Amino acid sequence: MIDLRSDTVTQPDERMRAVMAAADVADNVIDVDPSVRALEERTAELLGKPAALWTPTGTMANLIALSTHLRRGDKFLAPRGAHVLTNELGSAAWLAGGMPEPIDTDAGPGRPSSAAIRRLAAGAKQAPYYMLRTALLCLENSHNAAGGAVTPPDEHVQLVATARDSGLAVHLDGARLWNAAVALDVPPAALTVGTDTVSVCFSKGLGAPMGSAVAGSIGFVEQARRMRQMLGGGVRQGGVVAAACLHALENLDDLAADHANAERLASGLREFGWDVARPETNIVLAGVADVPATLTSLREIGVLALPMAGKVRFVTHRDVTTAEIDEVLRRIGEERARRDRRHEATSARA
Ligand SMILES: *Cc1c(COP(=O)(O)O)cnc(C)c1O
């Protein structure tokens, strides 16, 4: 099986396991776990924020951020298809208390325009008492459901400025911010400019077995630590995992290889006549007539993918090699040829 379902399926390699085994740890609720602290400091620095907090998952990181930005009766804006809208079981609404409103991605894949934000945020703060108050813009870079599409730094700065003008706070869901930074060839901090909070994952392209972080001001992280505890995220000797996350940050540059593999896969599929846009990072979205049937026939030839946004999603990651991408294409090509031969045989009989 060649597993292209997600970049979360990677196995910690020998070196990462050794780092975890040797990690300096302590109870991170009663005291401070030194490995967790080291990861948080490094993450804050990379993201250009005063502080960061480790969380077990990206979903918890987003929920903590949204809980601090939103009060019941508030509304928040997020690009259509955003993870906080579609993949977090509505916790932004039922736990953080904010009514979600999708923004049209009219500037490009996964990217809303400033005008769209301005329109939806108009009068956010002057709303009468019986109306929802728009409090937050939640961006996503790269945008998962849009096929790992990236927002460049200049456009990001404009969107943040528009949100600020309208009196909104800004959270960035940067689960794959590392991929966006590598694809755009900018430091990660260039993509967090002006945001109040940002979440990132170490468990995706970077290969850690688990772990995310949420970053922002010192005051935000103080509140976030209490919220993490409320949510049951007060992990004790978390340093065993944090050490893997810190080690995973050394893999940042390797993401370029995943992006090249995604491009190789996309162009190969296009040669077979598949409807595939050029990937901007490590996610390839293929438009096919019948998604479930395609996923089944891919599984039959030992290729795993997932449905996403009405398409077939392939994700490249550090546990698939370029040779394996070529093998995927070879198997798909072979399967096509077999089908064509069957077709010819049936037409000949008819
Ligand atoms: C994966 C992901 C998350 C968080 O996922 P977890 O599985 O909870 O770590 C958040 N946002 C986006 C865009 C993601 O792709």
UniProtKB/TrEMBL annotation:
The keyword Cell division does not apply. Belongs to the threonine aldolase family. Residues 3-289 form the Aromatic amino acid beta-eliminating lyase/threonine aldolase domain. Keywords: Pyridoxal phosphate. It comes from Haloechinothrix salitolerans. This is Threonine aldolase family protein. InterPro entries: ArAA_b-elim_lyase/Thr_aldolase (IPR001597), Low_specificity_L-TA-like (IPR023603), PyrdxlP-dep_Trfase (IPR015424), PyrdxlP-dep_Trfase_major (IPR015421), PyrdxlP-dep_Trfase_small (IPR015422). Its cofactor is pyridoxal 5'-phosphate. It holds the Pfam family Beta_elim_lyase. The keyword DNA-binding does not apply. It comes from the Bacteria.
